[in-house]
Write a structure and sequence with these properties.
The chain has 6 helices and 26 strands. It is α+β, with helices and mostly antiparallel strands. The chain has 2 domains: 99 residues, Immunoglobulin-like, CATH 2.60.40; 248 residues, Jelly Rolls. The strands form 6 sheets. Strands 11, 14, 16, 17, 18, 19, 23, 24 and 25 form a 9-stranded mixed beta sheet that branches. A 6-stranded antiparallel beta sheet has the order 10-26-15-20-21-22, with helices on one face. The longest helix has 17 residues. The relative contact order is 0.13.
């Protein structure tokens, strides 16, 4: 072999023998919105090594490979929600291969459009509160009760401007039953607390024009208070021929009162703790009271009265367009709702959804 050929052979052998396998110096990173339906991207990270490096990707759920998810991008699916998602990048050249794992993301569920409308209107920026609202809406739809709800005040955020919004129709309008706070209220992330002397919230929802005779109202009280004088957490009283009651009285002299289109009488049951989710419901000639999803009292054969012609108040009772003196509540409200035609099963399911909502927020009773 001539000198020229020997030189080429030696140089080539030297270059081959001096190659370096891949070594990761900066881990791969997943970027994008960690939410069901969104596309996320995994970078290669930073590597050393020669000659040219090629890269392969494998997305993992809780450490296990996800089917054919082997591209640098991945669309998050329902199965990924609340799971640990990572991406493993494998770098290869002529001298070997090595793998590195990205950061971990935990995707949230896709946001329901109705939940998103409320989140936007009420300026809810806390991710836990956003997720809780979304799950509540999804749950109520799953239980087929969403369409029966007329107004739902979840009291999330921490300010009056956030607590006023109706989750069912979060427009800042009387026609959307956006609440108007009057008097002394305290607003926190745990809910809204009336002062018991002059505070109430006008829901702008008038039973006579909005509801049927099968009515459901509910109040999530975070206060264990045994009132010694008449106190009303929510309600309205008015009618052409006398008092027609739509109200909740948890708890007066160790008795809770539920009244839905009754005149001069109340459905009562013994009660020793008013920190609870109360629902008063009327279906036909039967009035029932629910506490934390349990039917605690039933009265039958009750003649329906005319529906009140004044809007329902929270924190007091609307007595012929006047918040009744002496009937103001001071129980903290973490949610209130007004609905039409819920069955017993739907009332229980509603309670289940609400308790899950409160538990996510860490304010359950």
């Amino acid at each position: 072999m001539n000198g020229y050929g020997t030189s080429v052979f030696l140089r080539t052998a030297f270059e081959v023998s001096s190659g370096v396998p891949p070594v990761n110096t900066v881990a791969p990173a997943i970027t994008g919105t960690a939410q069901e339906g969104e596309t996320v991207t995994c970078s290669t990270g930073t590597w050393t090594g020669t000659p040219t490096i090629t890269f392969a990707y494998q997305w993992k759920r809780n450490g296990s490979n996800i089917g054919s998810a082997t591209n640098s991008t991945y669309v998050l699916v329902t199965a990924d929600v609340s799971q640990s998602i990572t991406c493993q990048v494998t770098a290869t050249n002529g001298f070997g291969s090595a793998s590195a794992t990205s950061n971990t993301i935990t995707p949230i569920a896709a946001v329901d459009p109705d939940a998103q409308a409320f989140i936007t209107a009420a300026a809810i920026t806390n991710p836990t509160q956003q997720a809780a609202i979304n799950t509540l809406v999804v749950d109520l739809k799953g239980y087929s009760v969403w369409t029966k709800v007329k107004a739902l005040y979840p009291m999330v955020g921490g300010t009056a401007s956030q607590h006023k919004y109706n989750l069912k129709d979060p427009r800042d309008l009387d026609a959307a039953f956006r609440g108007v706070f009057v008097g002394g209220w305290t607003h926190t992330s745990n809910g809204s607390t009336p002062n018991g002397t002059n505070a109430y919230m006008d829901t702008k929802l008038t039973p006579s024009t909005v509801l049927t005779n099968n009515i459901n109202i509910g109040y999530y009280s975070r206060t264990n208070q045994n009132a010694t004088s008449t106190t009303c957490d929510m309600g309205s009283v008015s009618g052409p021929s006398g008092p027609d009651y739509l109200m909740l009285f948890p708890r007066l002299n160790n008795v809770s009162w539920y009244s839905v289109l009754e005149s001069g009488t109340y459905t009562q049951v013994a009660d020793t703790n008013s920190a609870a989710f109360y629902i008063a419901t009327r279906n036909g000639t039967t009035v029932k009271g629910f506490k934390n999803g349990t039917n605690v009292v039933t009265r039958t054969g009750i003649t329906a009265q005319a529906k009140p012609t004044g809007p329902i108040y929270l924190g007091a009772i609307n007595w012929y367009a006047i918040p009744s003196a002496g009937w103001y509540s001071s129980r903290q409200c973490a949610l209130a709702f007004i609905a039409d035609g819920l069955s017993d099963t739907e009332n229980v399911n509603f309670s289940t959804a609400v308790q899950a909502f409160q538990t996510t927020l860490g304010r359950q009773i």
